[in-house]
Amino acid sequence: MRLTERTADAVEETGHKKRGWLVDAVLAVLIFFLAVLLLTKAVTGYATFFGYKPVYILTDSMEPAIPAGSWVVAVPARAEEIAVGDVAAYRKENGTELQPLIIHRVVGITESGFIFQGDNNSLPDSWIVGAEQIMYKIVYPDVSQD
What we know:
alpha+beta; 6-stranded antiparallel β-sheet; elongated
């Protein structure tokens, strides 16, 4: 084998090692995020990344504060952490099935529960939301009203 052939083989082998290292690094990062997701789900009951959950907005009920097609960031919240003016996410129960998240603003709190209304809706939601139905508080963008 000539010197130039050995040099070419060494360069090829080094490039292969770099590609292998990069793939290993990407896989390690993906495994790390999956582990964080599973751990937070096991501990808190909510699948989040370091306590934050991205949520995609499907409807225009919160426009102009939150346009349809945008992303918000939510954090798990208990009912006692929610105040009038906050935007929160809850699930409306329908028999034994859980509905998708509903993200609206809290417009009132009664002894029975919370009254929600979308900013773009002319009337409040027609049901009272119980404390156990509250899932998240929207923290980004900051759309709370004091």
